[in-house]
Amino acid sequence: MTGFDELRLDGVRRRFGGQDALAGLSLTIRRGEFIALLGPSGCGKSTALNCLAGLLPLSEGSIWQDGARLDTLPPEKRGFGMVFQSYALFPHLSVRKNIAFGLQMRRLPRDEVRRRTDQALSLVRLEEHAKKLPGQLSGGQQQRVAIARAVVLEPSLVLMDEPLSNLDAKLRLEMRTEIRRLHQTLGLTTVYVTHDQEEALSLADRLVVLRDGRVEQIGTPEDLHERPANRHVADFMGYRNLLPMKVKAVHGPVVAVEGSGLTLEGTAVGPLSPGDDVVAGIRPEDLHEGGSGVPVTVEVVEYQGRELAVEARTQSGDAVHLRAATRPAPGDQITVTAAPARVLVFPS
Ligand SMILES: Nc1ncnc2c1ncn2[C@@H]1O[C@H](COP(=O)(O)OP(=O)(O)OP(=O)(O)O)[C@@H](O)[C@H]1O
Ligand SMILES: [Mg+2]
Which residue intervals define the domain ABC transporter in the entry (predicted)? Predict the structure, then answer.
């Protein structure tokens, strides 16, 4: 199958025994896009990917490739490539044969199989390992074989389900760059499943945040990072301080809030009125030690290279997380402030 301009998921729903694993995903994927499906364990990421791949029939909804209906086609007719968390390589075939397998199945001429396999080997930098069996490779190398095996077929869409989760931290970073590089060089369209928000933010053009089978937000990394739509997305995007508070006053988009031992000004996310119960979301790096701020007591200080991560307690006993440039001692009283633009106030 050749490429497409867009792939449209229209109310894609999948139930298991009366329970929604995916409760209506609508999304248009444009050619060349890198989409990340992000969310905690059990939120429906793999279900969404498997529906797209054709490995799971839909309970409701439809999938369209340009004008043509796709969800009624079997997986092999969709022309997609898949990379799984478990690499699913053939253990008895060499690296080269693993990569060439799909091309041979398509009965391509021998020269072309060789040329494209060589190219794929070099793309994932495994030329020197071509003759080895998967069992003789490291985890990262095996994962690269799995990726090469998928992209060698020049699929119109590459689907990856947590492809890096079996790798150690350093290799994960390397492979992350590798995947983005391949996506760009080969002009791929990619849907990538992960529960790691950093991975999703760094790789994707757009992210789909799922929770309990529902879409919480779809947007660019900047959208999600700067303007999470609700407290659940905020929680996922590193707003580690999510403090229950009450609205004291509303001045346009700026709201004064109080609670959890803090008095702050923040930016309203949605309409709010005085007296409303809210959750104030603040990233640790946006909560600073400051002269005229709110007093808190330092409890735990962690060295993090450039900065120190501090957990402190407000006078009402609520924990807050912040960053400090100089090392405070446990038991120290410090004051904290945050810029109103960096405090997001969500209805609770
Ligand atoms: N074959 C199945 N039979 C019954 N329930 C299933 C099946 N597959 C998935 N589910 C349920 O559907 C929900 C979503 O599962 P899914 O595998 O899509 O989650 P996920 O987001 O990929 O999670 P993880 O990050 O743990 O892989 C879960 O509650 C899961 O238990
Ligand atoms: Mg999964």
Answer: 7-237
